[in-house]
Write a structure and sequence with these properties.
The structure holds two protein chains of two kinds. By secondary structure, chain A is an all-alpha fold. Chain A has two helices and no strands. Chain A has helices at residues 13-24, 40-55. Chain A is extended, with a radius of gyration of 13 Å. In chain B, strands 4-3-2-1-5-6-7-11-8 form a nine-stranded mixed β-sheet, sandwiched between helices. In chain B, strands 9-10 form a two-stranded antiparallel sheet. The radius of gyration of chain B is 19 Å and the shape is globular. Chain B is an alpha/beta fold. Classes of the chains: A mainly alpha, B alpha/beta. Chains A and B meet through helix 1 and helix 2 of A and helix 1 and helix 13 of B.
């Protein structure tokens, strides 16, 4: 399971709460945090790829 | 250590999708004239699979019988073989095109390489009739139309009269049922140092384009020529990411149209992306105003002094361009549902 974490200026408290809840429900040491600290257009592309690939439904 | 600030993008997006009603979409295309139409249709099917949109109908402005057959084959490939298809009669672009003939390819046993049951546009419903029928069945103000080909069908829709599907005139039916029209056509910003580009979708039916900009009663969002050019499709994706099936229509069509190493502009996909996700920040919008279509197919945008114009065009920052390109890539190459 991959959760994208991004440094950003505007933080939604709800997002942090969701994150904590999600982490709490996972087995110990099962999560991998990836920091995306690259140029802005590359960051935008990487984030979009993460979002789209995460939303891709399973093949039925 | 600086505080770690979190943004859970995918959760936000997932929850939003779960709540949202699918966008009711009519796709009006000149399938076969450029491979970006096919990218756009692939995107629509994958967005439909996610529940982001519902493809109500595909209507064609390319007047060749294989355009409808190829479209049906693509719909079938993506697991939606029963999407209604309407065709223009006496329209433009009567040549077959470079990739619509793929629909006639056979396998070794003589069956269709790309299965389809609509064999020819001659067997399909006329486009304006299908649009009227489709609109009449939907809730008021709910339908989004993405027009990525010529203006022929929608100009004729404006002129249509009450029929068996609805007693309303074309304009009244549009006013009642259509939420927004997302168009790929025209050019509104400098491209390659040129400020005036006579865009293909306008050139092929200038009178229809002139009629539509004058009479269309809802908001129109224009994806100009410059948008697709800026977010060109990376050809490496075509070369390497579509081999999950032996024959992929997008890969074969791309090679037939203009093979790698060519990065095809994503003109039509950008109009679809806006149509389905207008509020996701992929694009910014110009001020409101009005587009004028000149006799030579030039398009001129004039801002409305009162801010109440019905037309806007898409604008992208470099970061938005990167997002749009990646969204188009991922949504175009996603595999179809597994064969049953």
């Amino acid at each position: 399971m991959v959760i994208p974490l991004v440094d950003c200026v505007n933080v939604a408290k709800e997002a942090v709460a969701l994150m904590k809840e999600l982490l709490a429900g996972q087995p110990d040491h099962s999560m991998r945090l990836v920091s995306v600290g690259i140029a802005s257009t590359q960051q935008a592309r990487a984030l979009e790829a993460i979002v789209q690939l995460t939303l891709q439904p399973p093949r039925k | 250590m600086k505080p770690l600030l979190l943004l859970i993008l995918f959760l936000n997006s997932s929850l939003s999708l779960a709540r949202a009603e699918p966008v009711k979409l009519i796709f009006d295309t000149d399938m076969g004239n450029d491979v970006d139409d096919l990218m756009a249709l692939a995107m629509i099917h994958n967005l439909q699979k996610r529940g982001a949109c519902e493809l109500l109908a595909v209507t064609l402005t390319k007047d060749h019988p294989q355009a409808a057959a190829f479209t049906d084959a693509v719909n079938t490939f993506y697991g939606a073989p029963n999407v209604p298809i309407g065709v223009v009669r006496d329209g433009a672009a009567k040549e077959a095109g470079k990739f619509n003939p793929l629909v006639a390819e056979k396998t070794a046993d003589g069956s269709d390489r790309y299965p389809h049951d609509l064999r020819s546009g001659a067997d399909a419903e006329e486009a304006v009739s299908l649009i009227r029928k489709t609109l009449a069945k939907e809730a008021d103000g709910s339908v989004v139309i993405a027009q990525v080909g010529f203006f022929t069908n929608l100009a004729r829709l404006l002129d249509s009269k009450g029929d068996a599907h609805s007693p309303l005139s074309g304009i009244d039916l549009i006013k009642k049922k259509v939420k927004v029209l997302s168009i790929m056509a025209g050019a509104f910003q400098t491209v390659e140092w040129r400020t005036r580009h006579l865009e293909y979708n306008v050139k092929l039916d200038v009178p229809a384009a002139q009629k539509l900009v004058r009479q269309w009663p809802t908001e129109i969002i224009w994806s100009g020529y410059e948008i697709g050019v800026a977010a060109a499709f990376p050809h490496v994706v075509i070369e390497k990411d579509l081999d999950y099936v032996a024959h992929h229509p997008l890969k074969e069509a791309y090679y037939a149209y203009n093979p790698p190493p060519h990065d095809r502009p994503t003109w039509d996909p950008t109009a679809v992306l806006y149509a389905v996700y207008p509020d996701r920040g992929y694009f910014s919008l110009s001020p409101s105003g009005y587009v004028r279509v000149d006799d030579d197919a030039g398009t001129v945008f004039n801002p409305a002094k009162d801010g109440k114009g019905k037309h806007r065009f898409l604008v992208m920052s470099p970061e938005q361009t990167a997002r749009v390109r990646e969204a188009v890539v991922q949504l175009s190459v996603e595999p179809p549902p597994a064969a049953k």
